[in-house]
Fold:
Amino acid sequence: GINCSGDSRMCCRKEFFVDFKEIGWEDWIIQPEGYHMNYCAGLCPLHMAGIPGLAASFHTAVLNLIKANNADAAVDSCCVPTQRRPLSLLYYDRDSNIVKTDIPDMIVDACGCT
Amino acid sequence: ASKGMWCPACRLAALAPTMQRDVLIALAKQSILSKLRLPDRPNITQPTSREALLMALRRMRVQRLDTATSPGMMPRLSLTLLSVLCTGSSTSRSVRLHFRFTQEPAGSTEILQATLYLFWAVPGPGTHPVTVRLLQSDPTGLNVTMASETRLEVQRTGWVTLDVSRAVQSLFGRGSQRLTVELEVMEDGGSPLLAGHRDSHWPFVAAQARARMPHRLQRR
Structure:
């Protein structure tokens, strides 16, 4: 996937970190110290539809353009997460038990166009 | 999305940066709480002290009874020992780390495997050579001898591991529980320590151990 840089307007992954101390959650979440949430943003022009990041090729882009030109009612494509990984948490539950859990699909690792 | 519809991310992009941040934090909170099936954040009125937590973790070291032993024999306990850095001293090129295992009486534990974990923050691209020396001191702490020397090539920031099984085995065999590690770097080779790193990045040693059972004598 592509990570967003200053001059990029295309679909990319933006890094976003939630510091548990900053939001006042450090008293009940023991580890980690924050959540690398990240999110997807940017444009998905028609020729990029179905391209997960840079994995596809020039051929995919051309084929997409042909499909788009032939389609009667073209649809827009969205920039969405294409790869995610779990978040491991060690926290106190409501009964003050210490719980360790892995929450699936919480961290956005890569973005692409639908 | 059908033609002309907004993608979810497009709506976010239309907001002012400060508003975007608030929305994302609210989303993160909501996402964590819903996945943990919590209606609201738990209200911790009496948080457990750090000491109590450490005590609980120490108790968890005794993980399971080893049932693989032959019938009629006493089962042996499998343990995992963790030792975090207790003190450290440094010069511009070298760092000394002292690890201490606070475990059972000397001689009662058999070390199966031990690994040293170091978080290295390299200053830039390229390969950074690091010399790791394992030093052992006698129980008085006065005489220090070198047990081994290893050269590592650190290429990027992250955790590096080193097998220190022999050194820790020899340590426990001699009744000592103190391991000293000396790290020597080239100039600007980065450092795994000491100031500026979060607790989670402190060096540590993890060892797998087994409780040594006394020999059983039978009278015939």
